[in-house]
Design a protein that fits this description.
211 residues; mainly alpha; Multidrug-efflux Transporter Regulator, Chain: A, Domain 2; two-stranded antiparallel sheet; DNA-binding
């Protein structure tokens, strides 16, 4: 099961599968010996759930609602463009190689190298998703106004501090004796991150209003 999704989700672990099963997102059959048996539809459903979390930051309750309303079509693709909570709700799933990212963001490879140099993008990545595309596009627009990646390091360090704070709050939910709890902690951290993004955006708008 993991091997079928490892290329797109290299960090996927059995603990995540157990958690999603406990939450009713996937329901694999069991063999007579008690082993889980995943069908093609289970794989497509899981791919949809993982993409919705990664690329749109949907909480599990929203994913459940979507699956009840729309199900999964095709190869686990996110087909609905319905409005969902959170500032990342309208992001569409993408999977791009380096040249594809340059093409979609209308930048050259030298710009990606600069983003990597200042920690905006990870180095050595083979494929990029919606988040990397959003970062590259936003950085391109800011660079056009004279705010180059070297000027944005404070944003990266702020994001790193916020991520550390969220992980410190979420990590106690991951219990070694309970494999599914790791997945629970990951989803809890995602929800906290979405709230942090909302708060940051609102504070920035508030400060700009008085400028």
């Amino acid at each position: 099961m993991l091997e079928l999704l490892r290329d797109e989700f290299p960090d996927l672990a059995h603990s995540k599968l157990h958690y999603l099963e406990a939450e009713g997102l996937i329901t694999p059959e069991r063999t007579a010996a008690g082993y889980r048996k995943y069908s093609r539809s289970d794989v497509d459903r899981l791919r949809f759930v993982l993409r919705a979390q990664r690329d749109r930051f949907w909480p599990l309750k929203v994913i459940k609602e979507h699956l009840l309303e729309h199900g999964v079509e095709g190869d686990g693709e996110i087909t609905s463009i319905a409005s969902r909570p959170g500032p990342s709700a309208t992001m569409h799933a993408v999977r791009l190689d380096r040249s594809g990212l340059c093409s979609r963001a209308a930048v050259d490879d030298a710009f990606l190298v600069e983003l990597e140099q200042y920690g905006m993008l990870p180095e050595g990545q083979l494929f990029y998703g919606a988040t990397e595309l959003e970062i590259t596009t936003a950085a391109r627009d800011l660079a056009a106004e004279g705010l180059h990646p070297r000027h944005l390091v404070m944003l990266r360090t702020s994001a790193e501090r916020e991520a550390h704070m969220i992980r410190s709050v979420a990590s106690p939910r991951s219990r070694p004796a309970d494999p599914a709890s790791r997945g629970e902690a990951e989803d809890y951290a995602r929800d906290l991150g979405e709230s942090m993004i909302t708060l940051h955006s609102s504070l920035l708008r508030l400060r700009l209003r008085g400028s």
